[in-house]
Design a protein that fits this description.
By secondary structure, the protein is mainly alpha-helical. The protein has one domain. The protein is built from four helices and no strands. Helix 2 runs antiparallel to helix 3.
């Protein structure tokens, strides 16, 4: 039952990505996907990572420090993604 719900929600998510990029050029499609990942999905994932790290700290999990480090690294990558992409684009051009 859970796999069926997971499949449905992931299908709806990817259908939303595809429909927003269906009638656009490749560059604008990639910019739309980048905007959606950095602007909407990234902050939610970062918050969930910090919540999970805090919960594991509160419950006394011995891996809580590692969870916090991974959440910080993930947040840096997510929020620095647009800078990383523009740096790579400037190196290519």
């Amino acid at each position: 039952m859970q796999m069926k719900n997971l499949f449905r929600s992931s299908f709806a998510f990817f259908a939303g990505l595809i429909s927003s990029t269906a009638h656009a050029s490749v560059q604008s499609s990639l910019e739309n996907v980048q905007h959606m990942l950095v602007g909407r999905i990234g902050p939610v994932a970062a918050i969930l990572g910090f919540v999970f790290a805090g919960f594991s700290y509160i419950t006394g999990n011995p891996n809580a420090r590692a969870h916090l480090v991974l959440a910080v690294i993930g947040a840096c990558v997510v929020f620095g993604a647009s800078s990383i992409v523009s740096f790579i684009q400037s190196m290519v051009n």
